Amino acid sequence: MPHKLTLLFDSVGCNGYIKLMYDKLSIVDSKSFSFNDLENMLISNKIQQVEEKLSNYANKVYYKEIFGLKAGIVFIDYEYRNDLAEFFRQNNFDMDFAMLIALDYGTISYRNIKDNVNVRLIAEAMGGKGHDKAAASPISEEKKRTLIKVLTENKKY
């Protein structure tokens, strides 16, 4: 239910969501809360859009060995970092961790794909912090130039 509410929010925007929820909660009690046909259609459409976006990102993955681990590196929109990591896990991508570069947000997000990989240590080595399974580091202008140079010199697997 929370994920569907988020998708609905993304579909109708902040003001539309507030109005929709106000109207919906004014006429139903929390025990009978459900989505109508239009809301279900909007949620389904949003799920399809996200899946297409994730699939497109997955087709643009570069692989590079970093700290002895196989990293899947991709430039992304910041909002898709967690969804893309989960997509990699569910589809058994051949990588130890994902390195998700969001230039628009100025961060590199690290997500473990294999359970035995601690991405906090990788983030700390890159000047960041986080948790064992999810971490991030900032991207300086110098790092941006270096990343672009390294990635354009390597080929996709």
Task: Give your account of this protein's structure.
The longest helix is centred in the first third of the chain and has 26 residues. A hairpin with a 2-residue loop joins strand 1 and strand 2. It is built from 5 helices and 6 strands, in the order H-H-E-E-H-E-E-H-E-E-H. The protein is α+β, with helices and mostly antiparallel strands and 157 residues long. The N and C termini lie far apart (38 Å).
Blueprint of the fold:
Blueprint: H1 2-27, H2 37-58, E1 62-66, E2 69-75, H3 81-90, E3 97-102, E4 107-112, H4 119-125, E5 129-130, E6 134-138, H5 141-153
Parallel strand pairs: 2-3
Antiparallel strand pairs: 1-2, 3-4, 4-6, 5-6
What is the helix fraction of residues, given as a range? Answer: 40-55%
Order of helices and strands: HHEEHEEHEEH
The count of helical stretches stands at 5
Return Rg in Å.
19 Å
How many β-strand stretches?
Answer: 6
Kindly report the average pLDDT value.
89
Shape: elongated
Distance between termini? 38 Å
Strand content is: 15-25%
Identify the CATH class of the largest domain: Alpha Beta
Overall structural class, as computed from helix and strand content, comes to alpha+beta
With strands numbered from the N-terminus, the spatial order across the biggest sheet is 1-2-3-4-6-5
CATH architecture of the largest domain, by name, is: Roll
Largest sheet data: 6 strands, mixed
Low-confidence stretches: none
> What is the CATH fold-level name of the largest domain?
Diaminopimelate Epimerase, Chain A, domain 1
